[in-house]
Amino acid sequence: MTDEKRAQNAPKQEQNKGSENLSNEQASVNNIDQLQRYKSGDYLNKVGSLEYAPANDVLMAASLEPAPQSLWGDGMIFENEVTCIFSDSGTGKSILAVQVADEIARKGRVVLYVDFELSKAQFRTRYTNDNAEDYEFSPNFLRCNVQQYSLIGDDIISDIKSACADSGASVVIIDNLTWIESNAEKGDAAALLMQELVEMKRAHGLTVIVISHTPKRYLNQPITQNDLSGSKKILNFLDAAITIGKSIKDPALRYIKQIKCRTAGFKYDSDNVLVCELTHGERGNFLHHEPVRTAAESELLQSIDEDTRAMLVENVRELTNKGRSQREIAKELGISKSTVVNYQKRMRNEDID
Known about the structure:
Rossmann fold, Arc Repressor Mutant, subunit A, nine-stranded mixed β-sheet, 12 helices
C-alpha cells in the first residue's frame, strides 16, 4: 500500500475506531441504567401487595446484593433471617441466647436482647463470680425488659420495633415466645405471631432470633422439628431453627443441632452435632456453652453402665498420671471437664481409703 492510500484510509480507520468507542460508551451507559433499574426495583411489576418479574431479572437483581453474612455458629444464624432456638427446660436456651447476643455484638452490630425471663438480680448471678467481678459484655449488647408494674400487652411487637429503631439495633432476640403469645403452642395463634415477626424482619431489615421450648418428650430420643411447640405453624415461617439437647451419657454436656436452614447447608445435623460443656469460664463470671467436639447425636443418647463408667475412671487415672490436663482428658475421652474432675475426686478418695 502506498503512502497516499495509507493517508486516505487513516481518517476512515479513525472514524471506525471513534464509532466503536461511541458504541462501547453507549453500551456502558445502558449497563449502568440497567444496574440502576435492578438496584431501585424498577424491574418489578407491582399489583397490590404483590410484585413479580421474570426469573432471570430476579437472579440478576439478587446477584447485585451482598451475600448473606453468617452472624454466629459458622452458618447457624444468618443476618436478616428469623431463627428459633428451642429445647427442653434446663438445657440452657437463655444462656445460649445471651452468648449469641454478646458474640454478635462484638462484631459491631447493636443487639437488643428482650428478656422476659430473668430479673436484673437473676441475670447478674449468671455473669458475676464469687469475688463479685462482673463479666464485661460488649457495649453493643443491650438488655431490654418490661418496665416495672407494666403488663405485656397486644402491642408488645410494636414496642419491640420502636425499641430497635430508638437504639439502632439490627438484631433482636426475644426470650421467649410464650411471653408475647401465651397460645404459641396452638396453630392459629402461632401463625399470627410468626407473621408479625416476619413482617418486622422485612420492613425494618432486622435479624430476629426467638427462643421457644419443647413439649414433654422422651429424652433418650433424637430431637426433631416435631419437638418444637406449635411446630408446623411456626417452622413454616422460620428461616432457621436450632435445638439444644442434653447428653444422657454425661449430664454436664449439651449438644447443639440444626433443625432447619434455608441459606446454607446443614453442618450440625444428627450425624454431626456440636457438643458443648456448660461452664462459667476461666474467670467464673460468664456462663456459656463451650464447644468441645462434634459427635453423632445417637452417641450422646446412650446411657453409661457401671462397667463403662469404671473403665472411664481408669482411663482418667492413666491420662492424669501422664500429666494430661483436665481439658485434654475430657476431649480425648468424650466427656465433660466437670466429669473428669469428679472422677479424679473419686480416685483420690479411693487412694485415701
